[in-house]
Amino acid sequence: GIHLAPKEELNIPVLFMPDAMKMYKAEVVVHVMKENSENWTYDLSAESNRDLNSNVSLADKGGLQGVLWRYPVHGIPEAPQQKLVVIRCPARQRVEQRVEMLLFGVVPDEPAARNSDMANTDDSANIQEVQVTDGFSATAEFLYELQYQSNEIRSQLESLVGMDLVQTEWDTESGIVTLVFKVVFTPNKPVRIKATLVIRWAKGGVWKFPMLFIAMESEVDDVIDIEAVGLNKESIAGFTLTSQTR
């Protein structure tokens, strides 16, 4: 019963209050009719008749009683940002660290329903394997990805950081999932770069873990001793530097 003047705008509020970390689907349907309750006339064609019943409401005596617009709504709950994870390593060295990420609010469905839903998702082909790629990596029902603040930072850090999901523990009673990652950091110079580990559940939940990678000054390679041969005379010591690139 909402009356709209020509070119008037209507805001439709949508409230989302999830009770579990999974995707919720709904549809907002806008039904428009003439103010004087008259019907529209129309000519049917083979092309227009295909989706006619879902896009209009037909009058009993012929004609169109109303026109429908359908807006699908996907509600994806996102957990509050988690505690900062810091990975430290001296430059030109390698550190390997196990990091545990706790995911709260994961409520499993019934096994039969879960298998049916997983078969209908676009990511079902990647669910059964674990692989580290430039984008998302998949294992079981979780996807994870390291996101950077810019493409420049990604190009700097992507070749220096490796992440591999090595263990998954799911406590169905508490709804807590523990993901254990093996993080490898091999910096070649002192850096301090932030990144975000984004974990998505195939059912729709999202968790974000801020990470800070710190490469400290490298250790001294060697000590060069130059022994003086006399006052006001030059003493020379030779040493070799090897470049890691061309």
UniProtKB/TrEMBL annotation:
Domain CFAP47-like immunoglobulin-like, residue spans: 78-215
Name the record gives this protein: CFA47 protein
One GO CC term, this protein: cilium
Lineage, highest ranks first: Eukaryota, Metazoa, Chordata, Craniata, Vertebrata
Pfam families assigned to the protein according to its UniProt record, in alphabetical order: Ig_CFAP47 (PF26579)
Biological processes annotated in GO: sperm axoneme assembly
InterPro entries, per the entry: Ig_CFAP47 (IPR058952)
